[in-house]
Amino acid sequence: MSSLLLLLPLLAQVGPASTLPSAQRPYASELPLEIIEKKDKQDRDRRAREAQNVAMPSIGGGSGSGAGCMSAVEANPEKSVEVIRSALADAVGRERVRAGLCLGVALSDLNRWDEARAAFSDARDTAESEDHASRARLGAMAGNAALAAGQPGQALSLLAPAATDAKIVGDAELTATIALDRARALVAVKQPEEAANALAEARAAQPDNAQAWLLSATLSRRQDKLAVAQTQIEKAASLAPQDPEIGLEAGVIAMLSDNEAAARRSWDSVVKTAPSSDAAVTAKQYLSQLGAPDPAPAK
Question: Which of 176, 207, 238 is the last residue of a domain?
């Protein structure tokens, strides 16, 4: 039996996240679990960046304009939801937009994704039509919440206008982020070619985005485009050489390309550079399945 056949059960673990309960893994896409977990953290960080300077009523009930939204949400997201919803009753204009953004962040922290999507969407609709920057940011967060709720079709409908607004203001980073979420949604609705186009858009908008290259390599590998996947994972590795998910995926691509030695090197590097990571656990499993390398031929 070949080494690849021995490894197939473990390669299957780097499979559809949709096989996990949605409450545990909200992103319904066929991307490696290790990448999905990283995406969860990236989304939390993104929400924090967007809302860290948004003023909101204080948890104590006063007008806490001096306190940032995120500090209150992080301290007590459930209480924050109550306070912000109360404030929304009287908020108008920009105050209502900011409060809606903060409410969406608090609901996201509670994994109340449908409510978070509605909050972000309402805030986007409240923003002035010429405020493309706010509409792009809020639309992107609404789409991301829909994706987290397992509603990729709804996510696509929200992300499309957000992408247009992001391009109007020339925000390359946000354009790339939206394109990555669109790719995930397109994979979830079984449109891999459109997903590949979305990933190409993300790479064009932000060529140094290692995550875009990693996800591109993963999708290419799933489409059996191994030569393309190899080029893309090499680019990802050049941008983020210490990223364990990149090393893990590089090994999978190498193994499927019948290059066991390269696969071993990639997985060994994951274990050495990030020994406590989930990727290292998977890499150890792969290496264990391969067994000891064949001895070098005698000279």
Answer: 207
Tell me the CATH number at 285: 1.25.40.10
Residue 107 pLDDT greater than 50, yes or no: yes
C-beta of residue 115 within 8 angstroms of C-beta of residue 107: yes
Residue 50 amino acid letter: E
> What is the C-alpha separation between 78 and 109, in angstroms, rounded?
9
Structural domain tally of the chain? Answer: 2
Q: Is the pLDDT at 194 greater than 70, yes or no?
A: yes
Q: What is the pLDDT of residue 298?
A: 57
pTM score, whole prediction: 0.79
Q: Are both 43 and 26 inside the same structural domain?
A: no
Q: Which domain holds residue 175?
A: 35-207
Long-range contacts of 1-6 (CB under 8 A, 24+ apart): 3/255, 3/260, 3/290, 3/291, 4/255, 4/256, 4/258, 6/289, 6/290
Residue 299 maps to a domain: no
267-299: burial string, b at 16+ Cβ within 10 Å, e else: bebbbeebeebebbebbeebbeebeeeeeeeee
User: What is the structure's pLDDT at 39?
Assistant: 55
Residue 143 clears pLDDT 60, i.e. is over it: yes
Are the C-beta atoms of 180 and 202 separated by less than 8 Å? yes
At residue 169, the pLDDT reads: 93
